[in-house]
C-alpha cells in the first residue's frame, strides 16, 4: 500500500515522464498534489508544464501549486539560460484545463503535512527550494514526512559543473537545509540515473504503444537528452526523474546504501557538490541509490504508458 504522495518538480521532460508514470492508470499512486519550482525553466513555465502533463494524462483535476520562483540565496538563471533546457519540446501537448489553485506550494506542503492523517512521501524532482522553505517556516512538518525521495547530486562528475548536478547546483543552500533535517531520504544521483538510458530500441518500444500519451512521451524523449548524449557519448538520454517514481512503485529495481552526505555551499569551483562518503560509517538518514535494473524500469514505464487510453 503506497503512502500519500506529493511530487515537487520543475518540468522539464524527465519530470514530465515521471509525472506520467505517477499518474498512470496501471498503478494509481495516492497523489495529493503537485508543487512546482523554478529550475529547468522559470516557474511560470514549470507550473504551466506540470498542468499540461496533468491534462495529457487525463487528470486535469490534479491540483498543481506554484512555489518558489528563485533559489534561497543565489539569483541563478534557470537552466533555460544555464544549460539550454527548454521546457517540454518534442510533443504537441494539450493546454492546461481549468484554473490552478492560488495557494502557494510551500503553504500547501505545510498544510498537508501538519494535518496529515498518515505520514506523506515527498518525491522531489527539481531544486529543493520549496522543501527547504517549508522546513524553515514550519520545522514540525518533518515528523509527518514518511520519506524524501530525491533526484539530485553526483558521486562522480556533475552535469552543470564538473562538481555539481543541476538540482543541487541551482539551490545548494536549500539542499543543505533538507539534507540536515534528519528526514529518511532516498537520493538518486547521476551515477544511477546515467544507467537509465532511453536507447533507440527503447524509444521504438514506446513509440509502438500508439496511444496519445505514449506518443507524446516518445516525442519528448526523442528530443530530450540530445545534449547529454553528445556530452557523455551515451547511446540514449539519461532518464533522471522517473527513477524516483519507479522506486516508489518497485524498490527492488534499485540497490541503495546508507551513507553520510554533505552539501558544498561555498566553494567557488565546487558549490553544489554532494559530498557523499561512500565508505563512511557516520550516522546518516540518507540512502543513496547505487545500481538499477534499467530494463526493468523501462518495462515498468512502457506498461504504465500503455495503460493510458
Ligand atoms: O540533473 C538532472 C536534474 O535536473 C533533473 O531533475 C532535471 O529535470 C533537472 O531538473
Ligand atoms: Ca527535474
TrEMBL record:
Gene Ontology terms, MF aspect: purine nucleosidase activity; uridine nucleosidase activity
Annotated ranges, domain Inosine/uridine-preferring nucleoside hydrolase: 5-298
The entry's keywords: Glycosidase, Hydrolase
Pfam entry (one): IU_nuc_hydro
PROSITE patterns, alphabetized: IUNH
Recorded GO CC terms: cytosol
Listed name of the protein: Nucleoside hydrolase
Taxonomic superkingdom: Bacteria
GO BP annotation list: purine nucleoside catabolic process
Gene3D superfamilies from the UniProt entry: Ribonucleoside hydrolase-like
InterPro entries: I/U_nuclsd_hydro_CS, Inosine/uridine_hydrolase_dom, IUNH, Ribo_hydro-like
